[in-house]
Amino acid sequence: VGSNLVQSLLATGTANTIAMYDPVEAGLKGAAEEIYHSSFPDAHVTWTTDAGEALAEAAYVLSSGGAPRREGMTREDLLRGNAEIAAQLGRDIKQHAPEARLVVIVFNPADITGLVTLVHSGLAPQHVTTLAGLDSTRLQTCLAQHFNVPQHLVHGCRTYGGHGQEMALYKGVISIDGVRLNDILGSGTLANGVGLTIDGWEMIRQHVLGGGARVIELRGRSSFQSPAHLTTMMTRAACGGEVYEWPCGAYVTGDPYTQVMMAMPTTLGPGGVSWELPDGDADEHVELDAAYAHLQRLRDDTVDMGIIPPVRDWPSVNPHLV
């Protein structure tokens, strides 16, 4: 993900001054050499195995630095190791990049690694987010393939809550080539001459829930092109560029969800991430409640591991988390 992210940042003109970091020198140097061989104009790219050097006065911190999923693994299987990596990243940000405008956590389980990074970073919640749009783009892909239309004709695909089996799929604003999905489901109404049954929607839903595992099965490794591109587009929005239309991970607190990182309807800009509660039907809200309960359990498991302190003690580590 990291090397593709650097390439995407440079190719889109989103950034030209980039510090690449990895603790494994040979692989990192090789990735940097590939970037140099691409000969991007005005590029100022350095590499280092020293996290402090890479983070010094960084404005944007984009991290895919955890272990990847492998075939047969769930995102939760990565919990302890990647949460420990996130905790150290947060501490390094606090020490070396305390004025960072945006931190984007890409590595799984992102809802927890993002939360752990936030707690230890000392940053305000709006400045730490996670890549959460990939489930929504997978839903858009499935619908475009089912209705045999170009992907850009499928609008309003949104998944909220967790990144994984506990996500909630909100379908109320989805349209295909101008036809509302809710008008199509089980009704005989067509889009591009194609209908969709309730059972067919459930098959699409299951396909989205297993989208990451399917990529691993097909390619033998976890996703890297799509996370890199979406993270680039998040960074562009944070720099004042094009609107980022997909959900982001947000630190949510208040009623009915509190003190977790989860995908929500968000606005991302130079001030960071702001969020609101989603509109949906009763079944969708039940799904979101289940996702929240799952994230609470993962958060509490991380507390029990000693990686983050109990919730009541968070303000002693990060005063923004009152």
Quick take:
This protein is an alpha/beta fold.
Break the fold down into its secondary structure elements and pairings:
Blueprint: H1 2-11, E1 17-21, H2 25-38, E2 44-48, H3 51-55, E3 60-63, H4 79-96, E4 102-105, H5 110-121, E5 128-130, H6 134-147, E6 154-155, E7 158-161, E8 167-170, E9 175-176, E10 179-180, H7 181-184, H8 198-209, H9 211-219, H10 225-238, E11 248-252, E12 260-264, E13 266-269, E14 272-275, H11 282-304, H12 314-317
Parallel strand pairs: 1-2, 3-4, 4-5
Antiparallel strand pairs: 6-9, 7-8, 9-10, 11-12, 13-14
Helix pairs in contact: 1-10, 4-5, 6-8
Task: Classify the helix fraction into a percent range.
Answer: 40-55%
Report the order of strands and helices.
Answer: HEHEHEHEHEHEEEEEHHHHEEEEHH
* Overall average pLDDT: 94
- Number of separate helices: 12
- How many E-type strands? 14
What proportion strand? Answer: 15-25%
Distance between the termini: 34 Å
**Secondary-structure content class:** alpha/beta
Looking across the biggest beta sheet, what order are the strands in?
3-4-5
The coarse silhouette is globular
pLDDT < 50 stretches = none
Radius of gyration: 20 Å
Reported for the largest beta sheet, the result is: 3 strands, parallel
